[in-house]
Amino acid sequence: MSFEREERYIVVKIKDLSASQAVALCRILTHNHIHTRECVVVEPDWPIYEQTWDAVRRLSQGMEQEADALRSRLQEIEAERDALAECLEAAQRIADADRVDHPVHTMSDGEPVEFVSPGWRTKMGRDLHVALKGGSIATGLARRDARMKAEALHEAEHELGKYYSPCCRDAMKQMARMYRQQAEGGGDE
After folding, report:
1. Does residue 133 lie within any of the structural domains?
2. Measuring CA to CA, how many Å separate 152 from each of 50, 82, 146, 173, 183?
3. In whole angstroms, what is the distance from residue 58 CA to residue 2 CA?
4. Domain membership flag for residue 26
């Protein structure tokens, strides 16, 4: 994306206004609920004018590049998560296919009782079933996903946070804390 200079502000030098003009301007701004901003102004006749524009351009392009890099990293993480989820589903299918139901007959109070006891053809099927039933694989994936999100938010807040309002930075920190808590097993997986 190319950087283009554009008119975004109306700047009035207070020194150029008379007292009555300054009062009138303040009334207009207040009456129309027009908020002022704190800015640094560099006039065109200053020696650093073009360097300032160049700094703004570099900063703008740098933010775009950093944001693109973070988006790319997020896509990589999501693709890896999806691949791991597919592996989890495949493992579940293997464990289910390896399952064998054995009818069991027993006596209870003199009456014959029949029920089904699960078994597995192989040790791998049984081990997969135990791991999947215990949730260790799914929990591990959820915790890894939460950790990656927390790291990405921390990096975004650290690298790009200076460009956002304190409210946005606080929200990013809060989300990162929530994901860290999930990664450590203390939140919703």
Report:
1. yes
2. 35, 18, 10, 11, 13
3. 11
4. yes
What is the extent of the structural domain holding 166? 14-183
Task: Please check whether residue 189 is in contact with residue 143, taking contact to mean a CB–CB distance below 8 angstroms.
Answer: yes
Domain-embedded: residue 32: yes
Q: How many domains does the chain have?
A: 1
pTM of the complete model beyond 0.85: no
Q: Kindly state whether residue 103 falls inside one of the protein's structural domains.
A: yes
Q: What is the pLDDT of residue 94?
A: 75
The residues near 180 (Cβ < 8 Å, ≥ 6 apart) are: 146, 147, 150
The pLDDT-based confidence of 55 (bands split at 50, 70, 90) is: confident
Model confidence pLDDT, tens digit, residues 79-133: 888 887 877 777 777 777 777 666 655 665 666 666 555 666 666 666 666 666 6
